Amino acid sequence: MMSFPLLRYLPFAAAVLGLLIAVIAPMPGGWHWFLIAVFGGLVLVGLRDMSQTKHAVLRNYPVLGHVRYFFEMIRPEIRQYLIESDDEEVPFSREARAIVYQRAKNVEDKRPFGTKMKVYSGGYQWLTHSIQPKKIADTNFRITIGGPECKQPYEASIYNISAMSFGALSANAISALNRGAKMGGFAHDTGEGGISRYHRDGGGDLIWEIGTGYFGCRTAEGGFDPDKFREVAADPQIKMIEIKLSQGAKPGQGGVLPAAKITPEIAEARGVPMGVDCVSPASHSAFQTPIQMMEFIAQLRDLSAGKPIGFKLCIGHRREFMCIVRAMLETGITPDFIVIDGKEGGTGAAPLEFANHMGMPLVEGLTFAHNTLRGAGLRDRIRIGASGKLIHAFDIAKALALGADWANSARGFMFAVGCIQAQACHTNHCPTGVATQDPLRQRAINVPDKAQRVANFHRNTLKALGDMSGAAGLDHPIKFLPHHLMMRENDRDMVTGEDVYPYMPVGFLLREDDDRYGYLKRWRRSSSASFAPFDDGV
User: Fold this and answer.
1) Which domain holds residue 199?
2) CB 312 within 8 A of CB 244
3) Do 37 and 148 sit in the same domain of this protein?
4) What band does 362 get if pLDDT is binned at 50, 70 and 90?
5) Residue 500 is assigned to a structural domain of this protein
6) Which end of the chain is more exposed for a tag (fewer CB within 10 A), N or C?
7) Is the pLDDT of residue 94 over 70?
8) CA dihedral defined by 160, 391, 405, 247, rounded to 10 degrees?
9) Nearest to residue 196, comparing CAs of 284, 250, 272, 300?
10) Mind listing the pLDDT tens digit for each residue in 442-483?
11) Degrees (nearest 5) of the Cα angle 40, 46, 51?
């Protein structure tokens, strides 16, 4: 289907044409000056829209973009309708964007008239508070990531930018995110698309994600190249290395970037040739068994001179995760961190069935991974990150209560740089220039301004998290536990997080003395020698 990307300038062009006609062919009476005033005013508005740097929509859609801001202006009158809508994603997206925009712009985010209980699906949820709250002055919350074998542990923020690749995001969006990370002192996950010049120019801390395509450290045939990895990993800007096994939005799928879409900058970042389709297989070629995976982790740790090495996955077959944990026990090799990606995580494009029905949601996946590591006696050696639609301070607190050590967010930081969730990521026609490689569209992103908003959003979200932690009587959000989380499943039943998502006893899998929730059944079927499926359950 043919597209006409410049149609967004049609209202401005029409105003210019109308002004010219009014000047050249004057009408009798007062209509002449009226038309000059109307069209002249629209032309001035359009010129201002294209020259200003605060609003990406207006920069890309001069004159026409004001329609959006008109509806945004009257939003309070339609908010209740949206919150009571049967489509749960609509109110969540609107409320989440509102919170991000307010925090990114340092705007007051308090609202009157109390709680919007229907925002949360699956029943209302809340955190318990203390009669003796605490005041937390320093909300720059940090944790140390690095196990016993790590020589360069990383002092990480407990809230960081989740994986989004250059190519999926525009150059200006990547630059704004990374500069914001530098300003705020938090980390920026590169995504599996390699480290671009825009990641490096910002100077922010990087988590280098290595997917099945081994972009940035691949051989000509697409396999892993140890020498290239060593060279790239030596960059002091790279603080951690993350092996991507799967992502929540489309677990179990690889991908192909057609040759026609590969620009010189994408080829440079990924280390691939121009004119050839770029293939990301569905699984890794550097290892095929759990033990080989642990050996690969040890190899990366050695090649990187001891930087934290971990992996990211969306939990699928639970037994397979237990196979990995068995391999840790048998080899004595443990990752420094594991990131659990919930199926709620977004992507630029995924088959609808995958987005809706493949992969485990974050709460269940995080709880399972946390308890499996506790059961194997390894939890104190490995940090756990969580990702998957974690935008509010409450979202972060909940993830920490259920076992995470830190949280990552893609959606929240995309909102901070101007994403309006137009869902046009796969078309290259992103209206705000965030998810496009069109140079004309992405110029709408003013990098210094958006970088400051990224830093503002991070700082204000952690401040809100600190306020919630203090209200609960805690001096650090890492101290949230399941009993701080309450859930109302219907109008009569109230349960605690401890009832629904309890911490299993340390070492219970090794002792085989607690078979709640089917952990032992899967543990007994797991093997460090193979991921091969069994026919008696997952």
Assistant:
1) 142-424+450-523
2) yes
3) no
4) very high
5) yes
6) N
7) no
8) -80
9) 272
10) 888 899 999 999 999 999 999 999 999 999 999 999 999 999
11) 130
**Closest Cα to residue 478, out of 399, 390, 364?**
399
Q: How far apart are CA 510 and CA 15, in angstroms?
A: 74
Q: What percent of the chain has pLDDT over 70?
A: 87
Mean pLDDT for the stretch of residues 506-518: 92
Four-CA torsion 20, 22, 24, 25, nearest 10 degrees: 140
Give the CATH number of the domain where residue 405 resides. Answer: 3.20.20.70
Backbone angles phi, psi at 190, to 5 degrees: -75, -20
Buried/exposed 371-387: b ≥16 CB within 10 Å, e otherwise: bbbbbbebbeebbbbbb
More confident residue, 15 or 137: 137
Reported confidence tier of residue 83, pLDDT bands at 50, 70, 90 = very low
Predicted local confidence at residue 70, as pLDDT: 59
Instruction: Give yes or no: residues 56 and 191 share one domain.
Output: no
Residue 309 CA to residue 423 CA, distance in Å, equals 33
CA distance 481 to 188: 27
Residues 460 and 319 in one domain: yes
Helices (H) and strands (E) in the chain, counts: 21, 15
Closest CA to 450 of 54, 48, 165: 54
CA dist., res. 399 & res. 287, Å (int): 30
**Long-range contact set of residues 390-394: C-beta below 8 Å, sequence gap at least 24:** 390/362, 391/96, 391/99, 391/100, 391/415, 392/96, 392/99, 392/461, 392/464, 393/461, 393/462, 393/464, 393/465, 393/467, 393/468, 394/125, 394/127, 394/468
> Considering the domain boundaries, does residue 103 fall inside one?
no
- What is d(CA 486, CA 498) in angstroms, rounded to the nearest whole number? 9
SS3 assignment for 82-150: HHCCCCCHHHHHHHHHHHHHHHHCCCCCCCCCCCCHHHCCCCEEEECCCCCCCCCCCCCCEEEECCCCC
| Alpha helices by DSSP H, 25-55 | 31-51
